[in-house]
Amino acid sequence: MNFASAKKALLEELIRMRSDGVDRIFLQDETFDDFQKLLLPNQPNVSGSENTGEDFSLNERIARALPQSSSPKENASVTDFLLPEPPSFLIPDGTKQMKWEWLREKVLGCETCNEQLNPKANVVFGEGDLDA
């Protein structure tokens, strides 16, 4: 990407961010210094595909900051486990609170839920007013 198209892409991204409600961004001091070196009016204009040392160092830092892509394992499967068919059950008659309590106990005691649960986690069941 040449300098002119990079400037345009940066400007368009900043405009998009502003329209999304972002009113501030954080720049590291060395990144800000690099922009100043490239954009000061008394500096020679960088044209077309010409690369300067500043251009290269900025591009190099950007490339290092981007996440490295990884290739998927050859024998990796999408799912390592299969969930059983969901159980069918009837909620017993009673008040709304009684039905809620029964359903809560059913979920918290569910073998599949507890097997798939992270050992450091809990099954989270809704809280609050039932009439809300």
Question: What this model shows, in words?
Answer:
With 132 residues, the protein is an all-alpha fold. The chain has two domains: 3-65, no CATH class; 83-132, no CATH class. It is 45% helix and 0% strand. The protein has helices spanning 3-19, 29-39, 53-65, 96-108, 111-116. The longest helix has 17 residues, at 3-19. The protein is elongated and about 80 Å long. The two termini are 55 Å apart. The model has no long low-confidence stretch (mean pLDDT 76).
Main sheet characteristics: none
First-last Cα distance: 55 Å
The 3D shape can be described as elongated
- The counted number of beta strands is 0
As residue ranges, the low-confidence spans are: none
Helix content: 40-55%
Structural class: mainly alpha
Beta-strand portion reads under 5%
Number of helices: 5
Order of helices and strands: HHHHH
Q: For the residues shown, what is the average pLDDT? A: 76
Q: What is Rg?
A: 28 Å
Count of domains: 2
